[in-house]
Design goal:
Layout (H helix, E strand, L loop, with lengths): L11 H20 L3 H19 L1 E5 L1 H22 L2 E7 L4 E8 L10 H12 L2 E7 L2 E9 L1 E5 L4 H13 L5
Antiparallel strand pairs: 1-6, 2-3, 3-5, 4-5
Helix pairs in contact: 2-5, 3-4
């Protein structure tokens, strides 16, 4: 005689109905954003645009040339002596330079200060650097911001006025 038993615990529809009700309530609440909040949002955006419009990125020619004419040639000479690889990448769109060294060795000998001088100059010039052991290699990375941010106009009075307008709004908080 073959007996058959089926047990069921069916909650999918009940849970889905609850979830649908919660989402409906949440969506209705979001749709009820007050006109004041919309106005505050627009003022915040305008204020942020004004703050950013005061500045522009200007290429730092001295740093750019120093990287190309001093640091990279020094790193290439060290790589040749040490048997490593050095790669310089310059991304004009992102305004950064990245110099990377990978090698089995990075040795400094008494009387030869080339490596010490290079590392000192690179660390002083770089905006960020990383030294690590990576897959049995010495791995160095130097990052250079090749552009400076310069203020080209002053919008502080307009920003101050927008900030006051925002502060006078009743956001219901």
């Amino acid at each position: 005689m073959v007996k058959r038993m089926i047990l069921k615990a069916l909650y999918k529809n009940a849970v889905q109905d609850e979830l649908d009700e919660l989402l409906k309530t949440e969506n209705e609440a979001l749709e009820e954003i007050s006109e004041t909040r919309k106005q505050a949002y627009e003022l915040f955006l305008k204020k942020a645009d004004l703050e950013f419009s005061q500045y522009q990125q200007v290429k730092n020619e001295a740093k750019y040339q120093y990287l190309l004419e001093v640091l990279y040639p020094s790193a290439a000479e060290i790589a040749e002596i040490q048997g490593g690889d050095v790669i310089l990448e310059i991304d004009e769109e992102k305004h950064i330079g990245k110099m990377r060294y990978d090698g089995k060795y990075l040795l400094s000998t008494p009387g030869n200060i080339m490596l010490t001088e290079f590392l000192t100059k690179a660390m002083k010039t770089a905006d960020q650097y990383i030294f690590e052991g990576k897959e049995a290699l010495v791995h160095l990375e130097f990052y250079f911001n090749l552009y400076d941010t310069e203020k080209v106009k002053d919008c502080s009075e307009e920003i101050k006025n927008l900030r006051q307008k925002i502060n006078t709004l009743d956001l219901g908080e």
